Amino acid sequence: MDNDIVIRVENVYKDFILPHEKNGSVKGVFTSMFSKATKKKETQHALKDISFAIKKGEFFGIVGRNGSGKSTLLKILAGIYQPTKGKVTTSGKLVPFIELGVGFNPELSGRDNVYLNGAVLGFSAKEVDAMYEEIVDFAELRRFMDQKLKNYSSGMQVRLAFSMAVRANADILLIDEVLAVGDADFQRKCFKYFKKLKQNKKTVIFVSHDMGAVREYCDRAMLINDSKVVDIGSTDKIAQQYTRLFMEESIESSEEERTQDRWGDKAITLESIDVKIVAQNIDIKMVINCNKDFQQPVVGFRIRDMAGLEITGTNTKKEKLTLPDLKKGNKLKLNWQIPNILSDGEYNIDTALQYSDEITVADWWDSAVHLVVHKDRHLPYAIDPGFQVSIED
I need a surface site. Which of 129, 211, 253, 388 has the fewest CB within 10 A? Predict the structure, then answer.
């Protein structure tokens, strides 16, 4: 395997046999073992011809709808499952955070579980002694360490389990949505730790439904649907494809209603968008039509350069502006103002009208507006905030 490749997956298939024969008695179970009759069974193709490679130090995202095969793939990478066909090659010590808390005993205290789980991870009692304070501080559970684990909330259990798991000296970490129950502050702490691992050339494989986290932390991502790889590429590209996949599951719309650059269920739509550069600001005015009753829409935009690189973006929810519920026929007008710190050049503005979950899309419009910024100089960067320099007397 190439020196910079730590995981290589080649033409991997995984099948599960699902029996459908029912036995209503103990006698039936016993006699069916010797029956020559053809037993009813079904083959589930959980993974079909999966191939990809991950480089050392890469934060790699895997996304897809429920049942698409993501977790099965992660368990194959972890060695929990063996592929039906194909080959998986890994280089370095691998630790799966798939089932956090394996080895925990709910009847024991948090303190006792630290030592119990430490033994599962291969640490001696002396090694756990040395790291105990660090484990407790990271989990933020000092007040609760003498309580029984069964009295912990699910979030508290995840924090303790994660704090234990990250002590393992691993080269590759596999993470399957285990942070979903942690609060925002703890999630930020975990991702900060992941960034530290990246700096140390550790590799992280992250399965998630959170496209914000995928965009923010992953270097690349892979979309799986119907047990097959749909695409591998930039996080923005994969996140958009995932969102479209989600929409196709929840709504039906004709091909005439969907175009490559504009899509959604059209419950609310962007009637117009006007962008002007006024003095030192960029003013964006939006008019939104409501085509059916709609609760608390989330409206946002992002600015990309001509190479497709995201420069900046936001939405009303991130700006802590709760929009009112709309009735069919209503119009909503929004005015945005941002400082014009863009460099001299051309940009595209994408708009997004979403439901309050920030996943379901009503009207997503790529390149809704083309913006040209003129400045008296051209920098080879996207941002020109206006620099000042002077010689000190």
Answer: 388
Q: What is the mean pLDDT of residues 219-243?
A: 89
Domain count, the chain: 2
Tell me if 186 is assigned to some domain: yes
Is 36 within a domain?
no
Q: How far apart are CA 379 and CA 393, in angstroms?
A: 29
Given strand 228-233, what is the order of strands in its sheet? Answer: 94-97, 172-176, 203-207, 59-63, 220-225, 228-233
* 296: containing domain: 263-373
Mean pLDDT of 65-90: 89
- Contacting residues for 168 by C-beta, under 8 A, at least 6 apart: 95, 121, 122
Q: For position 319, which CATH number holds?
A: 2.70.50.60
Identify whether 32 is part of a domain: no
Q: 73, exposed or middle or buried, with CB in 10 Å at 0-12, 13-18, 19+?
A: buried
Sign for the pseudo-dihedral over CA of 151, 155, 159, 161: positive
State the DSSP code for 105: -
d(CA 305, CA 250): 32
**How far is residue 163 from each of residues 103, 120, 156, 190, 232, measured CA to CA in Å?**
14, 14, 11, 9, 31
CA 356 to chain centre: 18
Q: Please give the share of the chain, as a percent, with pLDDT higher than 70.
A: 86
Q: 78 with 181, same domain?
A: yes
In this structure, are residues 313 and 352 in contact, taking their beta carbons and an 8 Å threshold?
no
